[in-house]
Amino acid sequence: MTRGLLTSTRRWRWIPPLHSLTCVSACLMFFRVGCRTACRISTQPNVFESRLPAKERNLLDVYAEIWLKQNFDVALAKMKTLVDAYPDDKESKSVYALLRWELVKDTAGAIQLFHDVLKQDPKYQLALGFLVQCYQGLKDYDKAIEYSKRLQQYHPESPAASRILGGLYALQSRFGEAIAAYNDVLRQYPGDPEALMSLVHCYVSQRDFATADRYLEEYRKAHEGDAFRMGDYYQWKANLANWSGKFKTSMGYRFSVLTQAYETKDSLRVISALHSISQYYQAYGLLDSAAYYHMKSLPWSTQFQRLNYAVGLVSIDRSYANDVRTLQRDAIALLRTRVP
Question: Which listed site, 6, 321, 324, 339, has its alpha carbon 20 to 30 Å from 83?
Answer without folding.
Answer: 6
